[in-house]
Fold these 2 entries.
Entry 1:
Amino acid sequence: MDKVILNRMMFYGYHGLFPEENKLGQRFTVDVELMADLKPSGTSDNMNDSIDYGQVYQVVQKVVEGEAKDLVESVAEQVAQSLFQAFDLLKAVKVYIDKPGPPIPGYYESVGIEIYRERQDYD
């Protein structure tokens, strides 16, 4: 399957279980792999036959910088759902969300979650 990939998009959000996370917020980085048939756009050289990177960024930004969620898993699920709603060409998506410096005991560079969804998961 062909892919459109956006790496290390950075956003500021207020997601987490702890009150300080909801109050102070923190940085999140997001990677997405969007699976679609890109042969038509490769042949036509027409953006209408592909998935616009700028629009992908805007969709992800709206979710991550939007309503606070307790779990990063919920954020990722909403990102996936929103991408399927925005792009008819999208067949499957992988979403990775990285949360640097989580406020939990121990020393971590980051924690993250990754989900993979197909269009039929939402039919």
Entry 2:
Amino acid sequence: MADRTVDVLIVGAGLSGINAAYRLQERSPGTTYALLEARDAIGGTWDLFRYPGVRSDSDIFTLSFPFRPWRGEDSIVDGAHIRDYLLDTVRESGIGDHVRVSTKVLAADWSAERARWTVTVTTGRDQVEETYEARFVFFCSGYYDYDAPYDPGFAGVEDFAGRVVHPQFWPEDLDYAGKRVVVVGSGATAITVVPAMAETAAHVTMLQRTPTYVVAQPKQDALGNALRKVLPARAGHLAMRSKNTALQWTFYQACRRLPKQMAGLFRKGAVAGTGSEEVVDAHFTPPYQPWDQRLCISPDGDLFAAIRDGRASVVTGHIDRFVEKGIRLADGEVVEADVVVTATGLALKLLGGTRISLDGTPVDLAHTYAYRATMLSGVPNLAFCIGYINLSWTMRSDMTARLVARIVNRLRDSGADTVTPVIDGTPDSRPLFDMESGYIRRGAHLQPRATSDYPWSMRQNVVVDAWATNRADLDDGLAWSRSARNRTRTSAGTGASA
């Protein structure tokens, strides 16, 4: 079992897991680790999603890693190129030697006496059960369910004569050329799928219950590409990353502080893109303020262009049920379709659904508080990684990876073998992800809690979070201790445990 006993076990080989592994190698040399991935390939989200047009709605300079420059021309990048970037990062950094794919983590149990996690996994096609042991476990598995998307439970699906698909499980054999397509939803996935499918479909209808703010953004960053021609690769990359972070932060603050003015700007942009005030007022004017829910990006205004050209349209209404020829709305209208794409959103699943226990006693994550959005109160030697909702995921995940490396180093150097977040009392709290997006609201009861003050806060503000996290006092909110076995060894003169 020697190859399954490590200092740090990282769960998930997507953006966050690869980032965590790199920072561990860089900042904690000599630390042994393994990177476990449930799927058959690395890449996480960017390997899972294969629907038409799949891309990031964050610019690549802030989504990519600060330590590995993006060299492509586009700023808004498709999923295949992001997946290739991740594969290249793993190969060039040596992280690939530590990755074990087709290895799904089922449970993790902490032994207080031994100060070790025993992690149960299944591996390979035959799902053979194995165990790993680790001093520290770092979950980089995101926060949604890879196995099951959100299902609203539409009535009458079995009556529909066409084909129903979900973007999370896009079928390779789906031929929609020349067919009528209805995409149910108005989030980032729908905004991506509609113009991509409209290139070959007879017509694509985006059927939404509630409008979303959609903002056109250039696919290429002219200033960025000019800067990168005169600066060294790393300097150019970091300059673009800093510029875009500042712009995104300013944009978000403007939306929160001047919502009416920003909503007016978005309306003007949508009218210019679609060429129709009537379309915008009916279908692109949400009943909420900007950034109450996440904004959607349309690269080069591709969604607006598809609507303006007549290749796509939008219908806003409530679904009654599926019928043979399509979808019937509550007002009796039938939106006819040959193919229906249910871009209805994600289902929240924390820590990849792993069962966490302390000496055999299960841990309910909803009864914990999140220490710097990185660890859980009362749970020793365990971290998790989440990204921002209002900025690029990596802006937060890299911050977390560097903090975890600091914590691991102190465990190694201090003689302690246990670090546990401890919160005093039961302060007023809210769910860790505090936004009105559907999948977040539906999963609020599953989330750890957060307060308004550090170290138990996550502000969704990269400036404030970076200041608080990068300068974190590791004695504020964290209790460092030695296990009984470690104390026994020390008193016997053998020194701190490895």
